[in-house]
């Protein structure tokens, strides 16, 4: 089965992102706005149970994560993806590292750039038009994330939550 690990922002941020995603993101119907913590990976049922135990331990050892979203940005010229920039912070970076070590070790194709995708698979003309308008907008959200999710992919390509992991060294 295909799995992934993501952090979902608040409804307020999801609604803001979706106001753009419904028009510009070809994956709009497949997954809600999210910050990808671990890209797609394959695991069988036995491996999944080991991974879940590891994720529980990681969550218990990780503080809640401050999220600060500050602007629209893009991955151009690598690809025509437009996203909401999530400012990196030590807690988020440390969680990412933990999710790529031990039983979860793999080689990522990209450097971790925390973001929420709002547009993908855009033609060059559409990319330049849309990003040209969006980069002038003021964006500012701040909140705290207290959980991340193990997702799995359904046969239709959509993603759904398999299990949620609450963060918190201080959680009782």
TrEMBL record:
Motif annotated as HXTX 2, chain positions: 115-118
InterPro entries hit by this protein: 2H_phosphoesterase_YjcG-like, Cyclic_Pdiesterase, YjcG
Motif HXTX 1: which ranges?
34-37
Query: What GO annotations for molecular function exist for this entry?
Result: hydrolase activity, acting on ester bonds
Q: Which SUPFAM superfamilies does the annotation name?
A: LigT-like
This entry's Enzyme Commission designation comes to: 3.1.-.-
List keywords of the entry alphabetically.
Answer: Hydrolase
Q: Which Pfam families match?
A: 2_5_RNA_ligase2 (PF13563)
The record's top EC class is hydrolase
Catalytic positions are 34, 115
| PANTHER family linked | PHOSPHOESTERASE SAOUHSC_00951-RELATED, PHOSPHOESTERASE YJCG-RELATED
Membership in a protein family: Belongs to the 2H phosphoesterase superfamily. YjcG family.
Output this protein's name: Putative phosphoesterase P9850_08630
Q: Per the UniProt entry, what species is this protein from, by scientific name? A: Anoxybacteroides rupiense
Give the lineage.
Answer: Bacteria, Bacillati, Bacillota, Bacilli, Bacillales
């Amino acid at each position: 089965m295909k799995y992934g690990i993501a952090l979902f922002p608040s409804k307020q941020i999801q609604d803001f992102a979706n106001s753009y995603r419904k028009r510009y993101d070809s994956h709009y119907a497949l997954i809600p706005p999210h910050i990808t913590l671990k890209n797609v990976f394959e695991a069988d049922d036995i491996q999944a149970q080991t991974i879940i135990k590891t994720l529980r331990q990681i969550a218990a050892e990780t503080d809640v994560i401050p999220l600060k979203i500050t602007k629209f940005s893009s991955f151009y010229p690598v690809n025509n993806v437009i996203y909401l920039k999530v400012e990196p912070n030590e807690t988020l970076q440390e969680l990412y590292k933990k999710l790529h070590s031990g039983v979860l070790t793999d080689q990522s194709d990209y450097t971790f750039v925390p973001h929420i995708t709002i547009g993908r698979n855009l033609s060059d003309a559409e990319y330049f038009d849309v990003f040209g308008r969006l980069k002038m907008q003021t964006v500012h959200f701040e909140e705290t994330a207290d959980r991340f999710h193990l997702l799995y992919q359904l046969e239709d390509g959509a993603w759904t939550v398999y299990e949620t992991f609450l963060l918190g060294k201080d959680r009782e």
